[in-house]
Amino acid sequence: ERNGTRLHQATYQPLRKAHPDLPAQLVVAARRKAGEALKSVQERKKPGRSVSGPQSALCPVRYDARLYWVRLQDGCASLTTTQGRVCVTFRLCNYYTRSAIAKGTRSGRPPYPSGQSRNGFSRNAMATR
């Protein structure tokens, strides 16, 4: 099955029962990623190329708006993990601190400069303990 809605309906409840301690949104994110991997295999098959099933030893979590939030003014990012929520503290470089204050950013909405991605922004933040 390649349809995301039908995959969700078929797999969500059994996965929640099998992994009751795993946060629900992590189950959804994992199912979505697995569906994308299977869809990719199907696409690669079309041109007649030989393909094997998707494999991953370590698969990173794709965080969406329900799995994390950021409070720039507090220097805190809250991440949902398999162990519950974890707060990671960070310090922004001066350029981004001034930008955040000037734009009056709110939680979860980092001030990306025009044309810059979240990845470019995160490289300029420094996590601290």
Describe this entry's structure for a reader:
Helix 1 (4-18) packs across helix 2. 40% of the residues lie in helices and 18% in strands. The chain has a 4-stranded antiparallel beta sheet with strand order 1-2-3-4. Residues 107-129 have low confidence and may be disordered. The chain has 129 residues and is an alpha+beta fold.
N-to-C order of helices and strands: HHEEEHHE
Helix content: 40-55%
- The CA-CA distance between the termini, in Å, is 44 Å
Main sheet strand line-up: 1-2-3-4
Q: Which whole number gives the mean pLDDT?
A: 77
Number of strands: 4
Short description, anyone?
The protein has helices at residues 4-18, 24-45, 94-103, 118-122, and strands at residues 68-71, 76-81, 84-92, 125-128. With 129 residues, the chain is an alpha+beta fold. β2 and β3 (84-92) form a beta hairpin.
